Amino acid sequence: MQDIVKEFPGVKALNGVQLSVRPGTVHTLMGENGAGKSTLVKCLIGMQPVTSGKIIYKGKEVAFKTTQEALNAGISMIHQELSPVLERSVSDNVFLGREPKKGIFLDYKKMHGDCLELFEKIGLKIDPSEKMKNLTVAKMQMVEIVKAISYDASIVIMDEPTSALTESEVEDLFKIIEELKSKGVAIIYISHKMEEIFRISDDISVFRDGEYVTTDRAENLTQDKVIEFMVGREITDMFPKKHCEIGEEVLKVENLCSGKAVQNVSFTLCKGEILGFAGLVGAGRTETMETIFGMRKKTGGKIYKDGKEIHIKSPEDAIRNRIGMLTEDRRGNGIVGILSIKMNTVLAHLKSYGFPINSRKMAEDTQAYVERLGTKTPSIETPIGNLSGGNQQKVLLARWLLTDPDILIVDEPTRGIDVGAKAEIHTILSELAGMGKSIIVVSSELPEVLGVADRIVVMREGVVTGCLGREEVSQELIMKYATLDKSKQKAVQ
Ligand SMILES: Nc1ncnc2c1ncn2[C@@H]1O[C@H](COP(=O)(O)OP(=O)(O)OP(=O)(O)O)[C@@H](O)[C@H]1O
Ligand SMILES: [Mg+2]
What we know:
Blueprint: E1 2-8, E2 11-17, E3 26-30, H1 37-44, E4 52-54, E5 56-57, E6 60-61, H2 67-73, E7 75-78, H3 90-94, E8 101-102, E9 105-106, H4 108-121, H5 137-149, E10 155-159, H6 167-182, E11 186-190, H7 194-200, E12 203-208, E13 211-217, H8 223-231, E14 249-258, E15 262-270, E16 274-278, H9 285-292, E17 300-305, E18 308-310, H10 315-320, E19 323-326, H11 330-334, H12 341-346, H13 359-373, H14 389-402, E20 407-411, H15 419-434, E21 438-442, H16 446-452, E22 455-460, E23 463-469, H17 475-482, H18 486-492
Parallel strand pairs: 3-11, 3-12, 7-10, 10-11, 16-21, 16-22, 19-20, 20-21
Antiparallel strand pairs: 1-2, 1-4, 5-6, 8-9, 12-13, 14-15, 14-17, 17-18, 22-23
Bound molecules: adenosine-5'-triphosphate and magnesium ion (MG).
Magnesium ion binds near residues 37, 38, 159 and 388.
């Protein structure tokens, strides 16, 4: 890709960018949220036309008009924001648009079989006839990945493929990547996770604010160097945890149950405390939080706030009890794509703007959070769907900060967020705790939980397997509890 320029109304997303990808290698694109990484690959696959510039593929100039054209030519992509057809089956999703046919009818049997074969090849245990909506985000992601590689492509683009995956799934993905490489497939990889980037990359290109910064072999670069290229400054403290006083008990959860996913979960949370929730995907952390927040039916147990039992049947009840929750899956539960940043920010707080609505106040509040979180956007009236993934996450965080909750639950708060903004979000969480708020952080990134939390609850298969204090905790210990087998769980409880 040579001298690629891409303009959106009011935004120059790419300004003379280049990228050159070699067969049989992993080429990673790096840059802060909004740097233009996703836009660059969208231009490549014909999802968006370039404003100017040249794309040369296998020695010929190309300009794909649709993603289907790109696919036919051998370029497939796993998108940053999943877009599965939730009501259809897994195999329908994998073969969407190229369903095998028997005469004029779809050959469901073949589809099921082919799908199973693809899954088995990489050891994925998913029933192809399961409805897509019944899968976890992680499983959906794996399905997307299988779909992309099933096209026999020459280039596979992965835009933050591991953001929803567990460690073992990430390992599976890396094995797939190795296999693709050995077949001469080029992989364009986008991720904010430094460790994994340095594990798998051959080449790394860095972008900043739509500008091309540099490309080099991974072995010539270090994490610190890449960060400097990305942000133009050094970041010294990723987890600026301030010490703050921990006060009285604010939340007590007793034997909480929700079907099989949450079984007799008990824990307490104090004023000014940041409580981490660790575990592998499927451990029931998200489901526990959804039950507390009223998104999922509680089948047993009690919740107390400030010593009084509270009854939460819906998110509205939770908000009324001053509990806020930033959900894990921003596409499904969070953003309203066609609405503006302003409306998305004030959404959980609408009632406070009176009637008729005080839209000036709305704008002021939104603007304040755009500045505080460093959200990159041309204006607060921009539809949130136009923002880069990481910037959408910041808008959602702003939504919950604005409701000024006593208890803020954040589920994977920094997923898809660049290193600079990550440190900002950790600072904000720590500041909130300092102001006497209580915070629950669910995160699959162990360094994150270790960095921000005062205590860490570890779950496995719907059960709490351990609760660790800041002094005693380590990655090894968390992993031990996260993988503890059932027979020993009783002893810990
Ligand atoms: N459809 C669109 N309309 C208007 N502006 C857009 C559109 N898509 C992207 N942009 C803008 O282009 C810029 C680059 O966005 P892009 O999504 O490529 O960033 P990114 O590097 O992928 O960031 P992230 O790490 O957050 O995913 C951003 O300023 C974004 O707001
Ligand atoms: Mg992106």
